[in-house]
Write a structure and sequence with these properties.
single chain; mainly beta; 5-stranded antiparallel sheet
Length: about 90
């Protein structure tokens, strides 16, 4: 199992710049499914797979909240981590 990516972004501007430059730049199609991990809100992330014609497991992001704001996002880039969540291996288009 791989550890989380060793990246650190502080503040809305830095996080927004990272998201626009990388996962949200339009190269990949994503689906996110709300779930929870260790009693914290989390998002199971699926990425479009042209070969299968479905969204397949990609990662899980665990959110730490402070009030109604996100304080921390810890992304685990290992598709196998989604198996214990009882979520499907893939999602239809």
């Amino acid at each position: 199992m791989r550890p989380p990516l060793p990246s650190w972004y502080s503040g809305r501007e830095q996080v927004g710049a990272f998201l626009r430059k990388n996962p949200l730049r339009g190269v990949r199609r994503w689906r996110m499914v709300p779930t929870s991990a260790n009693a914290q809100p989390a998002l199971a992330t699926y990425v479009w797979n042209e070969q299968t014609g479905a969204f397949t497991r990609h990662s899980v992001s665990v959110l730490t909240l402070r009030g109604d704001l996100i304080e921390e996002i810890m992304a685990f880039m290992n598709p196998e981590l989604l198996e214990p969540f009882g979520l499907p291996a893939s999602l239809p288009a």
